[in-house]
Amino acid sequence: MTYRAGVIGTGGIAGMGILGMHDEEVIGKEKIDASHAGGYADADEIELVAIADVDSEKLTTFGNAWDIPTDRRYDGHEAMLAREDLDVVSICTPSFLHHEHTVDAAKSAADPSVIWCEKPIASEVSAAEEMVEVCEETETELVVNHSFRFTEKLRRLHDLIRERDLLGDVQSVSTQYRMELMRNSTHVLDTLVYLLDARAERVSGYITGENEAIDSLGTAGDVVDAGGGGHVVMNDGSFVTVDCTIPRDISSMSLNFIGTEGKLYLNNDDGEWRYWSLEDGEHVERQLPGIEGTWTWDDDYKRSFANAANHIQDLLNGDGQNYSPGAEAARSLEIIVGFYISHYTGSTVDIPLAEPLKDVPIKSW
Questions:
Q1: CA-CA distance, 124 to 330, in Å (whole number)?
Q2: How many CA atoms does the CB half-sphere of 23 hold within 13 Å?
Q3: CB-based contact 193:260 (threshold 8 Å)
Q4: Which of 172, 182, 224, 365 shows the smallest number of beta carbons within 10 Å?
Q5: Residue 171 contacts residue 258 (beta carbons within 8 Å)
Q6: What is residue 107's three-state secondary structure?
Q7: Is residue 299's pLDDT more than 90?
């Protein structure tokens, strides 16, 4: 059986390359395997059959690169959703459009079983919550592209922490990743809430106002996404520090967990995972059970889209549970929005956000 896929938004992450992951000279000029389209190409039972965009130049470039017939290149997502029968729809537009495109896709005549939405899930928490509700009502599986969740190593680590109590009760976590909060730190925060299986309870934030990617990406001037971070108290009692203020060239995606039974250090950029068991009052370094090697570019970054597409194929076949559901993606978004509200009001913010605060938008791209 072949499942039919459609893509809304034909820019970089859809199939034409993104800054920081691909060579600048090929971005926007040729198809890139590490993308939604590339992920579908890797999945044996999924075929990309239709694309939609409001930018005719991008639509043509993408369509030519990925061999999409001209009659299935649609000017705007409404036309594609009205005419195509699709099993899965990718949402690859700027994050402030994710809500509109996800809701429209879930309610459309295309009737997809799965929506594969780029991260962050939305620009405001209320939008993310409505996306989740609509997908539940229409029995559509909402998969958010927090790509680390699709790697076997991270899922194994989650089981070690949550099921085998590797660290005991986690007391403290420190995280670091490059600016900006919406575009980048959504990954590290999602990894945090996934490994802890917890939700933020109180947030205190700081925003730098700096965005090193606006000029290089040519984004609109009204983007407010910036570097920042802060302190988070999770509902499991753990205390978290988040630092996403550092430029790309000198940063590393790192998480350091300290628990009552051990400690864990993850540095994904440097490919270093280290674990110490607390034994008779001493920390003794041990091998992580069942995990060979560490994070690698080829397995865990370059193949992240292929991993996600093959997981979506499994979901379409009725095999397994959603690794990255929308309800959990909203947990990282509410922390980021909380940082902004805290910074600009000079206050500590409670999570879940009060109703008016759920509508505060943090515009990215």
A1: 9
A2: 6
A3: no
A4: 172
A5: yes
A6: helix
A7: no
